[in-house]
Design brief:
3 domains; elongated; Nucleotidyltransferase, domain 5; alpha/beta; six-stranded mixed beta sheet; Integrase_cat-core
């Protein structure tokens, strides 16, 4: 018996035919549900094409949208995005909805999903509940899937070049505000901003912003750095071998030792990068002054410091290290620049560390002597005089003349 190819195809279609999925339109109460998702954006930042992550929130009730740009989809970025969003809207939604992103879902336990520690901390701090979509069912969020494409297109279709990430975020904020002021036919021509005002009465209380930092205890290596996400950050060199606490934010790194802040860095975005501060290596450079000229710490130092070194201290390394110690402990770079300028006007050879110190101290004394006395200072002086008067009366002393006192 012969069977045609078309018959085989029809039979296969009948076997594979399934009922098409139907969707249920949802109705939402004000202030109840907000959806979150990530979207990828490629922008030119400071002349370099950079892949950025856009954190996007969409209110289920009024379709209010707000987005923020980050370098990565890390937990600290996820938490900071929530803190920023809740501050913008002025309250906290009762339920947040997520898909199966790594920052929200730690692991699958049967048909259930276990939340990450970072999401639990956020939920407890702000008091909101959360739920997750089914696997490969991002459409269950209903609003935010579409919002990612809308905001990405409206914001960056005509402009994709910025000097800094902060500038890009400010531009994105303005675009979101503009979109939220547009009338929505699906909301009886109300704007998203107007719908948001209706939600305020149902929001949870807004506490102080969440401290969105990932905390690690890290040992300081032989280069006097700590390694965070494969990049190095310097700390004072006397801490080599010690374990310190590091707070990792989306845009900065804070280092603590015995509860005291010892270093702060702008967070690096690449891998195997180094952020070194010259002041962290002063004690080592005192012992190894020859290492200064070719050091990465000097290369990364403030442009003004490098100019001072190259102009006046190229062959006086030890004096320069002494100047850096003085800058760290007692003065500011602007004061040093002022003193150098005064000395340079006399002659460039007068620019030495000792003369800079003397001139700085002299200038500070001038400032102190010109500061008017406060009421508190006057009260202390008057009180001291009254005590001395009582002392004179008690011991029947008399004022001593200037010449007698010298004698």
């Amino acid at each position: 018996m012969e069977v045609s190819y078309s018959t085989v195809l029809r039979t296969i279609r009948k076997i594979e035919k399934t009922t098409k999925e139907a969707y249920v339109k949802g109705s939402y109460d004000p202030g109840n549900i907000c959806e979150f998702d990530w979207g990828e954006v490629k922008l030119k930042i400071n002349g370099k094409w950079t892949k950025l992550q856009m954190a996007l929130f969409t209110s289920a009730f009024g379709n209010y949208r707000m987005a923020f740009l980050f370098n990565k989809q890390k937990m600290e970025c996820f938490q900071e995005a929530h803190a920023l969003f809740f501050n913008v809207v002025g309250g906290v939604y009762k339920t947040m909805v997520y898909d199966n992103m790594k920052v929200a879902v730690k692991r699958f336990v049967g048909t259930e999903k276990e939340p990450t520690e970072g999401l639990l901390k956020l939920s407890i701090y702000y008091g909101f509940g959360y739920r997750f979509c089914n696997v490969r069912r991002g459409n269950e969020k209903g609003h935010v899937e579409r919002s990612v494409e809308v905001i990405r297109r409206k914001a960056f279709a005509f402009r994709d070049t910025f000097e800094t990430l902060e500038e890009a975020n400010q531009y994105l904020l303005e675009i979101c505000k503009k979109r939220n002021r547009k009338p929505q036919p699906s909301q009886q021509n109300q704007t998203a901003e107007e719908c948001l005002k209706q939600e305020h009465k149902n929001f949870l209380h807004l506490p102080h912003p969440f401290d969105a930092a990932r905390i690690q205890n890290v040992r300081v290596d032989k280069y006097s750095t700590v390694v965070i996400d494969q990049s190095h950050y310097s700390v004072p060199d006397h801490l080599v071998g010690e374990i310190i606490k590091v707070k990792i934010y989306s845009n900065r790194i804070l280092c603590f030792y015995e509860e005291k802040k010892i270093a702060e860095h702008i967070r690096l975005t690449g891998c195997h990068e180094w952020s070194l501060q010259l002041e962290h290596y002063i004690e080592t450079l005192k012992k190894k002054p020859g290492a200064l000229a070719g050091s990465t710490a000097l290369q990364q130092a403030d442009k003004k410091i490098k100019t001072i070194y190259e102009t006046y201290y190229n062959s006086h390394t030890k004096e320069f290290i002494e100047l850096m110690q003085y800058l760290k402990d007692e003065t500011t770079l602007s004061e040093i620049e002022q003193c150098i300028e005064e000395l340079r006007k006399i002659h460039p050879s007068h620019v030495t560390t000792d003369k800079i110190k003397i001139l700085c101290a002299k200038n500070k004394n001038k400032v102190l002597s010109s500061v008017p006395k406060s009421k508190e200072t006057k009260d202390i002086k008057d009180y001291a005089k009254s005590n001395l008067k009582l002392y004179d009366e008690l011991f029947q002393t008399e004022a001593v003349g200037k010449e007698e006192a010298i004698a």
